[in-house]
Specification:
This protein has 17 helices and ten strands. The strands form three sheets. Strands 4, 6, 7, 8, 9 and 10 form a six-stranded mixed β-sheet that branches. The protein has a two-stranded antiparallel ribbon with strand order 1-2. A two-stranded antiparallel ribbon has the order 3-5. Among the domains are: 250 residues, Ribonuclease H-like superfamily/Ribonuclease H (Nucleotidyltransferase, domain 5, 2-Layer Sandwich), CATH 3.30.420; 56 residues, no CATH class. The two termini are 25 Å apart. Helices cover 45% and strands 10% of the residues.
Length: 481
């Protein structure tokens, strides 16, 4: 977390470090509370299982090996030319399609090559001296997305809105935030961990491992601080996916959102519901008949052209000549036409497919910034389920399914508000960090504008309890802590 904040360019290093420490302290406290609750209620606890201390989610980055003093040396363990060979070996073979090699494997290779027999402690000392670390391997996409200027601006606008959504219920607003996400669970509990040189660019810290994860269980769920996992009271099952080799696409997600909207409207009609999710491609798709300028050519029709709801099948030139005759299009090329059409209010105000589906049930939708799982409380639920399976279950297909169902579907005591509330408090801690120290706080006007952009279609003219609730939401904004 600290490293990501540094890359985001936060100005005050001391304040950043203090905030990071405070956030991790809060996460540890919430983790301990969740563990105690699980023990008291028997959730995720299996007979004869030993308690294991786990790593908290979204932790501060582990301290990198400190550069050894100039006088330090491990020549008594391996000579410089031997260490050079070992370094090349680790970079080339430590993460292979057959799995990750560990310290013991390096000891074997050194023994074969140089007839030097090192202990695990001595080999660890050599690797430390050479600047190698063992950790999660990922491409630099995550870090590039986190630092992307457009994404930072979007986060600055969304953070105040997330703060009000998270704090509104505590201030008496009839508002429920549901965090939605999909996840994949594998029989072999595979994690992309491996060795890397601290001096390697992020893009090179990848693993070429053959996944070897075993069968995949596709899971999705809705989680709120007030009600825990969303469960359909008619069926007794959680609302979401729970199937082997499940397919997630725009169609299946729209069907799931329609089901969720129906259940929310039937079971909790007194609340205004907002579904918080990431902006995956399948979540941000337009309806099939929406006007998408990049699909429109200069001339009418086209082989792949689908008549849209705004302009039918006419081309860009005719659209501007008939609908926007005052625009001077002389010298425009295809991309200029498309960019100009995106800016037209009728085009820009179109709703995404999931927005239209949810609005039929009076439910709002909001996207998290890209590469910010720290704002998603449900990520902590996935963490707990995976830890439970890792430590308390036999790694077999049938056992993984039982584990998932014990947490979500058909459970006599599914994840309730007390445990879910801890997840949301952790997510709110990171939201508050950016609100109070990590970014410049937007004005109330900007906050309300962001809210109106997200929920404008839920505020039609005329009286309804949804409109009243959103009016209360707006009016309470300045008074919220």
């Amino acid at each position: 977390m600290q490293k990501m904040l540094e890359q985001a360019g936060t100005p005050d290093a001391k304040r950043r470090q203090a905030a990071s420490l405070a956030a991790n302290t809060l996460a540890k406290i919430q983790l301990e509370e969740a563990r105690q609750y699980k023990e008291e209620h028997g959730i995720g606890v299996r007979p004869n299982s030993e308690p294991v201390t786990r790593v908290v989610y979204v932790k501060a980055e582990r301290k990198r090996p400190v550069a050894p003093p100039a006088t330090a040396t491990v020549d008594h363990l391996l000579l410089p030319e031997q260490r050079e060979w070992l370094g090349d070996f680790v970079r080339k073979y430590a993460n292979t399609k057959n799995g990750v090699r560990f310290v013991a494997d390096f000891i074997v290779e050194v023994r074969k090559k140089f007839e030097r027999d090192l202990s695990v402690r001595e080999m660890s000392q050599v690797l430390h001296f050479m600047g190698f670390s063992y950790g999660k391997l990922r491409s630099d996409y995550y870090f590039r997305a986190f630092r992307d200027p457009w994404n930072v601006v979007r986060r600055n606008l969304l953070v105040p809105l997330l703060h009000y959504l998270f704090t509104g219920p505590a201030c008496g607003l009839p508002l429920v935030v549901w965090n939605f996400d999909e996840a994949g669970f594998y029989v072999e509990d595979h994690v992309s961990m491996g060795w890397y040189d601290n001096n390697q660019p992020l893009v090179e810290r990848r693993t070429d491992q053959n996944p070897g994860k075993g069968p995949r269980f596709s899971v999705s769920a809705f989680l709120s601080a007030q009600f825990g996992v969303l469960v359909d009271k008619e069926t007794g099952e959680h609302v979401g996916k729970l199937e082997w080799k499940g397919i997630n696409n725009t169609k299946t997600t729209a069907e799931l959102m329609d089901t969720a909207g129906r259940v929310l409207a039937a079971q909790y009609p007194e609340y205004f519901h907002v579904i918080q999710m990431d902006s995956a491609r399948i979540h941000a798709a337009f309806p099939a008949d929406a006007c998408v300028p990049k699909k429109i050519n200069l001339s009418d029709g086209g082989t792949n052209r689908v008549a849209d709801r705004l302009f039918g099948s006419i081309g860009l030139k005719k659209i501007f000549s008939t609908k926007y005759p005052n625009d001077d299009t002389s010298g425009w090329r295809l991309e200029r036409y498309r960019a100009a059409l995106w800016e037209k209010p009728a085009v820009m105000s179109q709703k995404l497919l999931l927005e239209e589906v949810l609005e039929k049930h009076g439910v709002g939708m909001i996207f998290n910034p890209i590469a910010h799982p720290i704002f998603a409380a449900i990520e902590l639920l996935w963490r707990d389920i995976k830890w439970d399976y890792k430590t308390s279950w036999v790694h077999k297909k049938a056992e993984l399914e039982k584990c998932l169902r014990s947490w979500l579907a058909g459970a006599t005591d599914p994840i309730d508000a007390e445990l879910a509330g801890g997840y949301f408090r952790t997510a709110r801690g990171f939201v508050d960090y950016y609100l109070n120290g990590g970014t410049e706080r937007p004005s109330e006007r900007e906050v309300k504008r962001a809210a109106e952009d997200q929920f404008s279609s839920l505020l039609p003219d005329g009286a309804s309890h949804k409109v009243v609730q959103m009016s209360q939401f707006y009016n309470a904004m300045p008074q919220l802590p």
